[in-house]
């Protein structure tokens, strides 16, 4: 027994994961903690997968609806998908086994903006939440819960679920307590009030979750680390994308549209490109930057340590082993520079708009007018999901989408005549960036946009075909405001499906 549970009502409920999982029934809607690699339950979900496997082996059907913060630890996602344990998944995944089930039509998947999850569950769009499984790092004398390395939707899960299983993970450093800011002021219309967060570092809530102890049916003790991978050094393409972004920031500073020293709060996605942008900023002239994003990765700790970043707000600390060590050995320092919030706040449109976020997200492809597909390969096969990209892109001060100009060894162009699936419309996209260059679409009509997108962002191998498309689309009588040849608009994609390449 660990010394993390300081309240007897909870201590009396300590059981094994195998016992706890008996509270979960076939057909239940199960809400679990976890956002990116941080804070996923470590014991109860494997026990659930095991229970489902055994139940299936004996001929019984057993699946649950699974609600999360965003993606969860990939082994959890995989284990549950492998046993066909999920009938409905919401709101985000990024794991190959689950992806296959979704694309095969055997797992229902609802891909929604991450800021909408809590309110939609409160509204009852997903029915009754039977049980929540939430990882915490401790329980206080007064019966409040100390969050672990991510917050996600945990506040909402604890509030709405009929029953609760808590995992108390003694691996999470006690020193991390206090880094969290759990805001209890959100409500449903018509009772909403302004969210009084006017700077990235503002604290508007409390450091713990509330819970009704009577709803807690089991407490499971764990001591297991989160499993984020470290960052790989950015490749040449990512570095080229980053350098265009950094040049653009200087351009905006010179025009007086961004503060010279601290710019505006940055939001960036996960991965190689985001990492390259952060590294580039670390080497640049800016000090005292701020970040208002979803996830803090190892790279951010370096920026904070160097003073490049003054403050970072997120909902998840997706750190590698080395990152956790760095955080914990300097926790008193980092606690002054990092806050974790519920995802309804980290991604809140009201706050994103007020703070004037610079939103930088990855994309699969964009079309010549700036519509962006972030989620569906060839318009049909889900990759991950929209995640928080729409929360930030629609409401940001500067909305940028970043991608290599080609994929799959050059056989796919990321700039196409028309995207076969739209996540972000031309109205949301202000800037497109590839390693080829940066297309600033602000103030441009569609016919002007197409030229800039092709010349600045498309790979040279595809430019002629794209210009040819535009010329033909514009040459027909009555070509319209946004010229397209509907019979031809998806020809790049069809050619890829037919021949394995978008090249002519
Ligand atoms: O697949 O690894 O099998 O080759 O997509 O592509 O270039 O490695 O880029 O990891 O940044 O992912 C849009 C998926 C980009 C991501 C997406 C293939 C490519 C590769 C990955 P392989 P890259 P990334 C808030 C933000 C939505 C969620 C979001 C994403 C794989 O950014 O999920 O933005 N975004 N959350 O080969 C077919 C194309 C392709 C393509 C790339 N046009 N067609 N396949 N790929 N382009 C997050 C925070 O705030 C933290």
TrEMBL record:
Any single Pfam family the record assigns to this protein: AcetylCoA_hydro
Keywords: Hydrolase
Residue stretches making up the Acetyl-CoA hydrolase/transferase C-terminal domain: 323-469
Residue ranges of every copy of the Acetyl-CoA hydrolase/transferase N-terminal domain listed in the record: 10-221
InterPro entries according to UniProt: AcetylCoA_hyd_C (IPR026888), AcetylCoA_hyd_C_sf (IPR038460), ActCoA_hydro (IPR046433), ActCoA_hydro_N (IPR003702), NagB/RpiA_transferase-like (IPR037171), Succinate_CoA_transferase (IPR017821)
Similarity comment: Belongs to the acetyl-CoA hydrolase/transferase family.
Name listed for the protein in its UniProt record: Acetyl-CoA hydrolase/transferase family protein
Organism: Rhodococcus zopfii
Lineage: Bacteria, Bacillati, Actinomycetota, Actinomycetes, Mycobacteriales
